Amino acid sequence: MDIPLSRRRALLLGPIYVALTFCAILTLVPFAWLICAAFKTNADVFAHNFLPMGDGFLGVAWDRLTVANFERLFTELGIGRAIANSVMLSAVSALVATFFCALGGYALAKFNFKGRSFILSLVLASLVIPGSLLMAPGYKLIHDLGLLDTYAGLLLPGISPAFGIFLFRQAMVNAAPTALIESARIDGAGELRIFFTIILPLVRPMVGAYLMITFLGSWNNFIGPQIILQDPSRFPLSVAINQLRGMYGTDYGLIMSGTLVSIAPVLALFLLLQKEFISGLTSGAVKG
Amino acid sequence: MSHPAPASPPAAPTPRGHYRAEPLWVPWLCLAPFILTTVVFLAWPLLQSVLLAFKQTYGPRNAVWVGLENFTFLFRDPLFWKAVGNTALFALGSVFVQLPLSLGLAMLLNRPGLRGRAVFRLVFFAPSLVGLVFVGLLFSLMFAPRTGLVNTVLHGVFPAFDPEFPWLEVYIMPALILAALWLYVGFNMVYFLAALQNVPEELLEAASLDGAGPWQRFRHVVLPEIIPIASFVVLMSLLGSLQLFELPFVLLNGGGGPDNRGLTVVMYLYQTGFITGDLGYASAIGWVLALGMAMFAFAQKRFIRRHEEN
């Protein structure tokens, strides 16, 4: 055939848009169902899949939509407490882990010291140890240290994950020229100042991506707080909403409004920062 | 490595004073949090789990040495094998249903001249931001008989479909595969897309001029280029599948479902460790699982090495 590949491809774009749009709609349907359920009474949740049908605009009974589920969540069930806990836990763990991982990655990328290759292999070894293997002995350790039912027991193990050290090391090896660091030293800059004013700005995209990765990981962490925390006033959203299901199992509207409250903030955050996030996610994998 | 030479040329005095070599304590101080937490929260529990695997415990306080009994019991434990079977089924579903779809979507999105790529990518990726516990809650309602969305839609499209279809009682693993499909298809797609964007367009043009059809172009041009990342995604997906826990845990409200049809290996580990209180038996399960995962990781490494040699 004489038509070049690129021309032939352009002709095929139509069906591709159709296929992609179909898949996109399938992907969005659970979100739509969730949002609709959160704003409906239970009678309407069972009677209508999405918006309640009626004789309002577009055949939808808009007046039957309600925020009663959210009111119950915030007043009667005190979900505000769980939101505050989640925000606090996620923010602290993201900030601390990003700071320590950036420091550790910097040390491995830009310093020559005895034992560096040993530490690097320690980082790689920690990456492949399955979390489920540590569940039983980790619980025992937290218990023995007297950290059960404390935020310290939840946060301390994650202040400097090997995954983050590895990501920052990879980013800094290429992004931060060693000559720049050396000339700053000759000019008399202190080590902390070099790190904050030269190194960190050079890997800014990685800082943003890693902040988000850890914030999200902590926000969505369920099994950690489920095992370690006992006092309901300390529960983050993940555990609190799941408890809600245990108590109000058939109250779909209530459970879906709790789920919506839990996932909306992270989705919004991601919409704002998606570019950095995705580039950070893939940068660890694209190493050949 | 990247560091050119030891940064300690003879300390020639500079106008400002003297040359400062990189101070030895700085890297160790920077790495102190990592080293400390790794020793305390990783190496120590790991060592403990080796010891625990040879003990029977009642809660975190009481333990009796039982030698290899945990392991010999494990291999005769029908519940463990049931969990292994369920987990394997889920892993097969992830690798043979979810990943081909991820790759397919990535290839569609990678078409030159496609508009709205960022929007599509965003939509497909969005579910993976939702925590497993919330996905579990959402799908436990969507899979409900009669009132759940899945059954009402299937019944609406195919009237022969039974609206009482018992997803979460009988077809638990297919339901889990579907939920995981929604959750991870876009996540893996992002990796495939990154890999595909590295395939040189000239190579594809050249293959096309030589008369290679779409399948041949994929098999002989695209696939060899994306194999390193693709095999990494397959490995991650396998390892993640083998550790499947939170999704069925929430979807089935903490248990294994009727007749343990939804029991996974890590769920069984959790049940023995935290419900029955035998952290020893749980550790033995953990080590068998880790061994299985290590085998897959090893196989992927060998596969990649052979691929690079060719």
How would you portray this structure in words?
- The complex is a heterodimer of chains A (288) and B (310).
- By secondary structure, chain A is an all-alpha fold.
- In chain A, 73% of the residues lie in helices and 0% in strands.
- The mean pLDDT of chain A is 86.
- With 310 residues, chain B is mainly α.
- Chain B contains 12 helices and 2 strands, in the order H-E-E-H-H-H-H-H-H-H-H-H-H-H.
- A two-stranded antiparallel sheet of chain B has the order 1-2.
- In chain B, helix 3 packs antiparallel against helix 9.
- Chain B is globular and about 70 Å long.
- The chains are: A mainly alpha (288), B mainly alpha (310).
Task: State the main characteristics.
heterodimer, A: 288 residues, mainly alpha, MetI-like fold, B: 310 residues, 2 domains, two-stranded antiparallel ribbon, 12 helices, 2 strands, 3% strand, disordered N terminus
Brief sketch in words of this structure:
The complex is a heterodimer of chains A (288) and B (310). Chain A is mainly α and 288 residues long.
Task: Please render the helix and strand layout as text.
The complex is a heterodimer of chains A (288) and B (310).
Chain A lengths: L4 H7 L1 H26 L3 H6 L20 H7 L4 H32 L5 H13 L2 H14 L6 H5 L6 H14 L2 H9 L4 H12 L1 H17 L2 H6 L8 H11 L4 H32 L5
Chain B lengths: L24 H28 L2 E4 L3 E4 L3 H8 L1 H32 L7 H9 L6 H11 L6 H9 L14 H25 L4 H9 L4 H29 L3 H6 L13 H12 L2 H31 L1
Helix pairs in contact in B: 1-12, 3-7, 3-9, 3-11, 4-7, 7-9, 8-9, 9-12, 11-12
Number of helices of chain B: 12
**So, CATH architecture of the largest domain in chain B?**
Orthogonal Bundle
Counting DSSP H or I runs of 4 or more residues, the number of helices of chain A is 15
Strand tally of chain B is 2
Overall, the morphology of chain A is: globular
What integer is the average pLDDT of chain B?
Answer: 87
State the end-to-end CA separation of chain B. 26 Å
Instruction: Provide the gyration radius of chain B in Å.
Output: 26 Å
Fraction of residues of chain A in helices?
A: over 70%
The average pLDDT value of chain A, as a whole number, equals: 86
Order of SSEs of chain A:
HHHHHHHHHHHHHHH
CATH class categorisation of the largest domain in chain B: Mainly Alpha
Radius of gyration of chain A: 25 Å
CATH architecture of the largest domain in chain A: Orthogonal Bundle
